[in-house]
Specification:
This protein has seven helices and 13 strands. With 273 residues, it is α+β, with helices and mostly antiparallel strands. It folds into two domains: 6-75, Multidrug-efflux Transporter Regulator, Chain: A, Domain 2 (Orthogonal Bundle), CATH 1.10.1660.10; 124-272, Multidrug-efflux Transporter 1 Regulator Bmrr, Chain A (Alpha-Beta Barrel).
């Protein structure tokens, strides 16, 4: 079929597997605008060459891709479309993995097993030396938190790289709870060599030596609100043993977040004691 052959809207809908209602919606949204509209009877016609994009919309919507993302795929050059689809599906898989873990936790809760947390492993302890850390702190909402953590770690990481790189894994300290009723504050810390103190271009502080209890979790388990159960696990472990908490709890990110998959271990939930 020649690409420039004009098809009626009904024929175009049938060949593309779109309903007439969907075709009208995508016209209104600018995703599939008719190539010709008869001035007298308002009949709409589409060139046959547009069928490929119409079928692509069908497939993308079957992946539950939002229409705004579908529009971005259609607007992209052909060579870049696969990258958009891959990025969307990677994010979807991460979301499904987080929801899978959350569903397991909710099943435990509704079964009366509130004390258990099957998503984490054993609580362990370790001793940490005193550290000089780059520090950035702010009050923040749960929705803003993930983006700010990444951006702040990038900013402090760049400062650390200028003096030889981080001296240890970055960590996030929760000086107050972060939920829909409380906004922290939260502090991002990147350890650096104490000998570089005079050359640093960001605020610093001393993190005292301490022992901490921690539990290791996966990238999927970092998602809010299921990450809260990891904090509860360590807090309960300390309470059962009569061990006091000496300072604010934290998340310690010991591996590269970007390259990690949903089920890869990426973070320790730790309480100094």
């Amino acid at each position: 079929m020649p690409d420039d052959l004009l098809l009626s809207s009904g024929e175009f809908a049938r060949r593309s597997r779109l309903s007439p209602k969907a075709l009208r919606l995508y016209e209104q949204l600018g995703l599939l605008v008719p190539d010709e509209v008869d001035g007298a009877n308002r009949y709409r016609r589409y060139r046959a060459g547009r069928l490929a994009d119409a079928r692509l919309i069908v497939w993308l919507r079957r992946l539950d891709m939002p229409l705004a993302d579908v529009a971005r795929v259609l607007a992209a050059p052909a060579a870049e479309r696969a990258g958009y689809v891959s990025a969307y599906w990677e994010a979807a898989e991460a979301r499904f993995a987080a929801q899978r873990h959350l569903a397991a936790h909710v099943r435990d809760l509704v079964s009366g097993n509130e004390g258990g947390f099957a998503m984490t492993g054993t609580v362990n302890t370790r001793d940490l030396p005193a550290q000089l850390v780059l520090s950035e702190q702010r009050h923040i909402t749960p929705e803003e938190l993930p983006g700010w953590i990444g951006a702040a770690m990038d900013r402090l990481g760049a400062v650390a790289e200028a003096v030889g790189g981080p001296a240890g894994p970055p960590f996030v300290v929760y000086h107050g709870e972060v939920n829909h009723d409380s906004d922290g504050p939260v502090e991002i810390c990147v350890p650096v060599d104490a000998a570089s103190a005079g050359r640093l271009t960001a605020p610093t502080r001393q993190e005292p030596a301490h022992r901490e209890a921690y539990v290791r979790i996966t990238k999927a388990q970092v998602a809010f609100p299921q990450i809260l159960s990891a904090f509860e696990t360590v807090a309960q472990w300390l309470k059962e043993r009569g061990l006091p908490v000496s300072s604010a709890p934290r998340e310690v990110y010991f591996t590269d977040w970007t390259s990690a998959g949903p089920d890869d271990e990426v973070c320790d939930i730790a309480f100094p004691m």
